[in-house]
Design goal:
317 residues, globular, 32% helix
Length: 317
Amino acid sequence: MNPNTPYRPDDFDSFWRATLADSELHPLELRVEPVESPLRTIDVYDLTFAGFGGEPVKAWLRLPKTKESRLQAIVEYVGYGSGRGHHIENLLWSSAGYAHLTMDTRGQGSSHSIGHTPDSHGSGPSTPGFATRGIGDPNGYYYRRVITDAVRAVAAIRTFDCVDPSRVAVFGASQGGGIALAVAGLVEGLSAVVAKVPFMSNFPLGIDLAESGPYTEIASWLRIHAQEETAALHTLSYFDAVNFVQGATAPALFSAALKDAVCPAPTVYTAYDSYAGEKSLNLWKYSGHEGGGASEEFGVLTFLEASMASSSGCRSI
């Protein structure tokens, strides 16, 4: 395990308290629209909720048609460049009996899966991608908005009568894994956290080690803006999973891959080492950024089953 950890600002906690307090000034303004679908065992809803600044964020809510008790829930955050996708994609978790919310990532959704949520905020000069948008100031940095959206997504799923609000897990891979770890440090009462090959885990080390992906966007930006390195790294410290997870308590399952050129394993190790709650790590010796693939999902299902107990009393959405 790499012993190095990134800088943690003295006002890290107050920065996020103020950010989330501001978001709570806005009602969730949930809009739930049933989706006509050929799926026979899953109901799908087009969900909109108010995220950062009260701005609308899209999500899919998938529910198993048969609900004999209040449902355990999974909130999923997607990988870099991806959006929530089409409603018939990503059916594993609802097929396994969970209420499953897939949050759109504002401004993304044109690389791997389609997105439907714009990011209305501009930024200063940035490299192509999202990792350097607003990097000169924590208040304007792109991931301040995304992480706030992610916290609000948990609040949204907890409002549904058919969901047990005490049995909610957060899940993500790559960018989604980093967001899940941030939420784990910001939201109380989560039942489980799954962070597969997470991005946003020790930014300084990722910038040094990564050979492709979002960390290299930051390295490219710093090559042109070398005189702004201190300010940029200061901004990134407010969004580093290593700093969030020091206050996380929910059981967590991490994964890392030794041939991962996007989110190198040593970056994951530092987040794992810093995680305050019960934790375990799956290490994929021969894998790249794909991690364990489908084989990994079996372990995730087992972990979730062990971490979340069922409860009763589901009513219609």
